[in-house]
Amino acid sequence: MKKGLWLVLAILAALALFGGCYITGRAAVPTVHATVTTPPPPTVVGTVSTPAVAVGGTYAPPRPVLVTGVTTMTAACNPNAQEVLNGLDDNCNGQIDEGWVGSGSLQITLGWNTPADIDLYVVDPSGTEIFYNNKVSPTGGQLDRDDRGLCLNEDGSPTDNVENVFWNAQPPAGHYVVRVNYYGNCDSAGPTPITVSIAYGGALVGAYQYTLSDQETVEIASFDL
Ligand SMILES: [Ca+2]
Ligand SMILES: [Ca+2]
Description:
Blueprint: H1 2-24, E1 53-54, E2 57-58, E3 65-66, E4 71-72, E5 106-112, E6 117-123, E7 129-130, E8 141-145, E9 161-167, E10 175-184, E11 192-200, E12 203-212, E13 217-224
Antiparallel strand pairs: 1-2, 3-13, 4-12, 5-9, 5-11, 6-7, 6-10, 8-9, 10-13, 11-12
This protein binds calcium ion (2 copies).
One calcium ion (CA) binds next to loops.
């Protein structure tokens, strides 16, 4: 009897084990709450100039057309340099004379270093001419510094002159024209070397040179955005 009893018990155990699994069927699918793993931000070492991003992607740099006689300056900036008021991006951060004038997303800056009175003109795609007598365009462009050499200067200095036009927000697409006019020699200035620097989307497009004579007007550069 004992042997028979053990046999019965063994059969019942086998049925409970394998039969149970069979009856249970496929294992229940565990409920998984969707989770999204966000990768950590990249590690940035040092100071990096972040280029502005336009809707739909990064800004495409414009390609200015220069008139005869205008030359492109060789890049001479230094990331460790102190930015000074001179119409140039001294520290290579894509902003011209930051701390003195506005930069924004598009910046066009005239610089010269004689007592002459020279003026910057920028015609934007709306046809608006931005200059000392019309400092704000409906497109958002504005002239925020107007220097007049020895004739009369905003900061009282006959040299280190700068005029600056910039757009804080994204400037309109279309055609831009940059002109400079030698308004007056203020009784002491002769032909004057000038620079025009253009920065767009957090990067310097270029810096351009020309020597301007008294009363001369020159279309330094034109470009499309
Ligand atoms: Ca700079
Ligand atoms: Ca500068």
